Amino acid sequence: MSQRISWIDICKGIGILTVIYGHGLDGNSLRYLFYSFHIPLFFFLSGIVFHHKNHESLLKNINKAIKNILLPYFLFAALGYIIWLFVTGFSRISFFTLLDQVHHTLYANGALGHFFYNVVLWFLPCLFATRILFTLITHFFEQKKYRVLSILILGFCGYIISHFFPSLKLPFGIETSLTAVVFFAAGFFWNSYQGKLKHLVHSQSLKFTLIFGGIWLVLAMINFSLTNRQIDMRLNIFDNIFLFYPAAFAGIFTCISLSHKLEKNHVLEYLGKNSMQLFVWHLIVFTFLSKIILHYTTPQTLGTLRNTFFAPLYTFISIITILLILKFWRSRYYLLQKIRNSGIISS
Fold first, then answer.
1. Domain that holds residue 307
2. What average pLDDT does the segment 24-33 reach?
């Protein structure tokens, strides 16, 4: 968006905290509560900032998605794999392993173990597929009722695949994008009515936070109790559709209401502005941090204290580390630009 909206950045800040902290927890904790809504939240927010213009061609919209999502994905994938090779030793690389990795990067399905060096990268190709899917819907259907009907059909197909064909893994996580497009479209439609809802959400933000927060907690707990496994969009696991969607939307609206209640929170806003970098790199920081910690403790101790001590530690250190690297990189870029503008060196 040409002008940033503070509550959206705060909402992204809340979302990225739940992602990072959730990855620090183990599977026997309350991690399933975060997984029930945090990735749907980011698809929803992506839908809010998606602006479809009728006069723009389909090709132009696809080119925008390639530039804003796909190219960064390939860059992050290449850098992540190089870092992994640097840590594990370049002796592991060969022509055939490199060829396999190129194929995995192009196929880009996070459920097949293709992103062993940085599993969170699955989100970007899936977001790309979701955005293209919604772009096609808005291009071919101008009336809202047909768009809504298309979204409902796709969401139902996504659930059928998840429930009856769990082994189906398509390029770019298309099987997951059938579910993700529901949240993306909801964000897009929310943006259409945001002006009418703004005063209501702002004036009743505390009440909405408590109401939606309670609904989210109850539904997420019930859905988890039925199968004893967490929702996982990367693996295309949603369990009960009548609990998954209401719980996810309740969690999303909890974050939206809370973001309006906080109104101006510079820390969360700053985290939100840098959420993509934090999302992409935090697991790599986790890996390095774990190696350091295991020099001074045992895996048993690490496992025992993971939820109470190491998860908050991982979250704090990874955020600080990534933000400091970003600040250093941007200051160097800014300085280089000033030098170029001064004419000391040519561009």
1. 1-21+265-341
2. 90
